[in-house]
């Protein structure tokens, strides 16, 4: 790649920006692959060393220590599950993962992709700024398939210097990068609102589908009509397909929404703001988890409704019409 | 039109089937116009005689009496608000509207487009069958704009003789006619499930948007991100556009969902079936109605959330960017 081909020769490019990804779950692994496919030099770390090694077999570098990775990169993308894990990655003293904040060089950027309380994200920007580290609040939406194809939606906010360095990194992972302002926390606020809707819509889809089946409407017909009517939602269409297939293999688990709707409610309480539907949906996911369904796909929240004959698993789909 | 052009020469055609429409609200008027545009001979009746006369100015016939209209048609399409009005149209003894069941000829079809309790619809089929009148359970979805363009979704069930005569009439009004089975009530059951989702989604959209705005996210940005993320729903996209515009002119009023979610809950109670989100959303619409918002657009349910600075009405849109 030739700098002279670029309209802004000093802008960071895939060849010059070293990127690290910490956390190689379904989302992080797809994002690391998208970055590698876009031409970035990608280092990775995961507590499961074999997952990092497997990634590096096709290019990039696996690090046994998150701190060592942090010391080598311009942009560190954190794709861990929650605020506690973000805390551990940056400030923890654990073996392997931990201590990245100490090792990141001044001027480098931490891209925070987890779903966290917006107040935590805003505070994190300030804590990292004390060491000269820049910060982007950058939660993601879209699921594992879109992470793998570099077509995520990112809800971001942060200062212009952080965007100047990390912007091409975000673009390589995403179909749409929303820049919501220069105040860290705005990205997380929008993500929280998205999770509120996603969680309520999954629970509502389950309530509606369970009631329809119990009333004697064939599940396939119900799905067909609703997905072509005003009652449709992105989540109804996506998750009720799992129910029709009788397949509760977790793409995203019940316990993720126990956590995320809990986070929504936690974020609203200090503002004394009522969220009646979120609270109700949270109780439904809690009931599912308490019934032993926490590790199943989140569509399994439909199993809390008694007396409903759900579609059976299609074990031999190739033999069916 | 020449019968020989048709694959099934004995099938009813627009030219041979006389159609009546009772109830010329936003939906019924659009449907009557679609039927007229498709070449049907259309008679209409509404308690507001001037609305019927206005329709007939461009073709078709206005009837001052619903009974007189019923006596003249092969297919009578009822587009009234609720079960009580269906009862009044068919069996009432009111002046003008009322008594249609007595005047419909044996072999004619009543097409029931209202949102009603499925048990009411199933019973209605039997009551009309006693007089030799056929019946289609045929609730509609899609809104006034799609009614006017003949692009409704219809959720129908009923016997084959009813479909044989009324099928072309349904097709002329709809982009999609779902035939859910030969048992009246199935169409209404699917409609009830659709209304459950539609009502919960409007209330969830309001809760999410109110919380986001209160948290400091600009309303326009929130709308843009959510409509491109997994938290989207048909209702969020449609109704929150009204909130952004600050325009609560009722396209469908808060009180419609006070009624429809009430109907959903009423239909579930005899089956001892819990609907936690529907019950919560119903309370939100009740609170809105009790606050004096019953006649506003259903998106006005967002006004139950205190301390939220909603977008102001755009009074001079032509001067804005």
TrEMBL record, chains A, B:
It comes from Streptomyces xanthii. Catalyzes oxidation of L-threonate to 2-oxo-tetronate. Can use either NAD(+) or NADP(+) as cosubstrate, with a preference for NAD(+). Residues 18-181 form the 6-phosphogluconate dehydrogenase NADP-binding domain. This is L-threonate dehydrogenase. It comes from the Bacteria. PROSITE patterns: 3_HYDROXYISOBUT_DH. Its EC number is 1.1.1.411. GO terms for molecular function: NAD binding; NADP binding; oxidoreductase activity, acting on the CH-OH group of donors, NAD or NADP as acceptor. Keywords: Carbohydrate metabolism, NAD, NADP, Oxidoreductase. Residues 185-304 form the 3-hydroxyisobutyrate dehydrogenase-like NAD-binding domain. Belongs to the HIBADH-related family. L-threonate dehydrogenase subfamily. The active site is at residue 191. It is an enzyme of class 1 (oxidoreductase). The lineage of its organism: Bacteria, Bacillati, Actinomycetota, Actinomycetes, Kitasatosporales. The keyword Oxidoreductase applies. InterPro entries: 3-OH-isobutyrate_DH-rel_CS, 6-PGluconate_DH-like_C_sf, 6PGD_dom2, 6PGDH_NADP-bd, HIBADH-like_NADP-bd, HIBADH-related, LtnD, NAD(P)-bd_dom_sf. Gene3D superfamilies: N-(1-d-carboxylethyl)-l-norvaline Dehydrogenase, domain 2 (1.10.1040.10), NAD(P)-binding Rossmann-like Domain (3.40.50.720). It catalyses: L-threonate + NAD(+) = 2-dehydro-L-erythronate + NADH + H(+). GO terms for biological process: organic acid catabolic process. The keyword Ribosomal protein does not apply.
